[in-house]
């Protein structure tokens, strides 16, 4: 059995709404499956505005409501991430474009749109930052649950191997 951990990084614009929820949900999903020790999981931002900050209170509230523990702080993606992580997930097409632009030539990480793993076909995880309520955060949570399971099922089936 390989002792090398699989590594996943979740990316959104500011790392205080969508990517922390995706990170927390993915960690809880692999923990619940008994696979938590096989994964290294983190999240980061495209932009640096919120570096060092905790997630938006609505993101924390949503995770807390669903029993998803979270205590990470925002950070910005760095070029080394593209060779450290096996999978880097963007939340929308703009994130994906930014990731493809920043990825060093020949880097190992697979750049994946997280929503592509939603069995309901809801591909874009919309940024709820400017919403006046928590509904968008709840939707992000539900999408993250479906996408985490969908990705892990496809990975287990060998569909994501090179």
From TrEMBL:
It comes from the Eukaryota. GO terms for cellular component: cytoplasm. Its main location: cytoplasm. SUPFAM superfamilies: Phosphotyrosine protein phosphatases I (SSF52788). It is found in: Cytoplasm. Residues 6-154 form the Phosphotyrosine protein phosphatase I domain. One of its GO terms (molecular function) is acid phosphatase activity. Belongs to the low molecular weight phosphotyrosine protein phosphatase family. Acts on tyrosine phosphorylated proteins, low-MW aryl phosphates and natural and synthetic acyl phosphates. This is Low molecular weight phosphotyrosine protein phosphatase. The lineage of its organism: Eukaryota, Metazoa, Ecdysozoa, Arthropoda, Hexapoda.
């Amino acid at each position: 059995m390989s002792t090398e951990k699989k590594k996943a990084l979740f990316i959104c614009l500011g790392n205080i709404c969508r990517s922390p929820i995706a990170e927390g949900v993915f960690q809880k999903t692999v923990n619940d499956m008994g696979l938590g020790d096989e994964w290294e999981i983190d999240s980061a931002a495209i932009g640096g505005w919120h570096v060092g900050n905790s997630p938006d209170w609505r993101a924390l509230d949503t995770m807390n409501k669903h029993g998803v523990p979270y205590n990470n702080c925002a950070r910005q993606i760095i070029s080394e991430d593209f060779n450290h992580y096996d999978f880097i997930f963007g939340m929308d097409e703009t994130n994906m474009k930014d990731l493809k632009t920043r990825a060093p030539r020949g880097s190992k990480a697979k750049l994946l749109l997280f929503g592509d793993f939603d069995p309901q076909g809801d591909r874009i995880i919309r940024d709820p930052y400017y919403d006046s309520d928590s509904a968008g955060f709840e939707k992000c949570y539900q999408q993250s649950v479906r996408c985490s399971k969908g990705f892990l099922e496809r990975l287990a089936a060998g569909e994501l191997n090179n």
